[in-house]
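tool_call: predict_structure(chain=1)
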Amino acid sequence: MAQTVAHDERMSPAAWWRRGGSFSAIWVVTALLFAISPLLAGGSLSHSSLNAMLPFAGILAIAAIGQTLVIQQGGLDLSVPGIFSLGVVLVTVIPGDDPSKLGLGLLVVVGAGLAAGLLNGLAVTWVGITPLVATLGMNGVLLGVQQQVTGGSINYTATTNWASFVGNKIAGIPLIAILAVALALVLAAVMRRSVFGREFELVGAGPRAARAAGLPVGRYQLSSYALAGVCYALAGALLAGFLGRPQLNAGNDYLLTTIAAVVLGGTALGGGRGSVIATLGGVLFLSQLDQLLQVLGVSQSYQYVIQGAIIALSMGLRTVPWGAMRRSGSRDAVAPPGSSEGSTPSSLHTGEPVVKTGAPTH
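tool_result:
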C-alpha cells in the first residue's frame, strides 16, 4: 500500500507540476488557442496573418527572455520601456541615415543596454535598493534623457542595410523570429549544461542557501540584470529596423507583456526555476491572442485588461495547494474502515472521553 501511495504521489498534479509541468502547460494552452482561433475569426491563421504576427512576437520574445533571467533571480525589471526605447533611439540617431555607421550604432546599443543593466544590478545587489524601486528609477532616468536628446521625436529612420537585414526571411520564416528562437535555445543549453547555468538556478531558488554554500549570489543577480539590459536594447533596435521610423517611446508596450509572457511560461515571480523555452510559449500565446482580439475589434484598453487578468489568473492557480489536496484525498481513499485515519471514533468528534474496559478484542 505504501508503494501505491508513493506512486500516486509521483503521478499527482503537484508532482507533475514540480517535474516541469508548469513549463509544458503553456504549450498545451497555446495549441488550444491556435485551434479555436479560426473558429472565432476566419483568416486569423492565414499565411499573411502569421507573417504579420511573427516578427513582433520575435521582438517580444527577445525582451521577455531578458525579463525571465531577472525574475528567475527573484527580481522584477521595470526598466524595460526605458532600455528598449534607448535601443530604438541609438540605432537610428547614431548612424543618421548613413549605412556605414550601422556597426557603430549597434555597438553603442549593446554597450548602452549592458551599462543600464549593470547599473540596475549594482543598485539592487550592492546598494540594496528594492528591485522595483531601482529599475523604476532607471526607467525614468532613461526616458528623460531620450526626451532631452531627441527633443521629443526621432528625426531619422533606420538605415537601409539594417532594415533589409531585419526584414529578411529564411524558408518563409521572418528572421526576427528565428533569432529569438536561437537565443532561447542557446540560453537554455547554457542553463542546463554549464556550471554557470546550474549555479544560476540554485541562486535563484535559494539565495541564502547558495550564499551559505559559497556561491557568489550578488554576481549572478548582477549578471541577470546585465544580460536583460542587452536583450531589451537589442529588441528595441530590431523594432526600429522593422518599422523604419519607430516612435520615441516604443518600449512602453513591452513592460506588461514581458511579465505576462514570463508568468505564463511557468517562471515563478518569487524566483527559482525558470525556462526561456517556456517563455517563448507565453510570447506565442500572447501574440496570437493579441491578433485574435484585434480581428474581433477589441480595443487596446480591453487588451490590457485581459493581459492583466491572465497574469492574475496564472498566479492564482499557482497558490492553490494542489499537493495537499491530493494527499488528503489519497488518505481518505486508502484508509480501511475502522482505522484511525478512515474512521474516527465518535468520541473524538463529540469530545466525550474514550472508556477502556480492558476486555479482549475478538
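agent: The chain is about 70% helix and 0% strand. Proceeding to next step.
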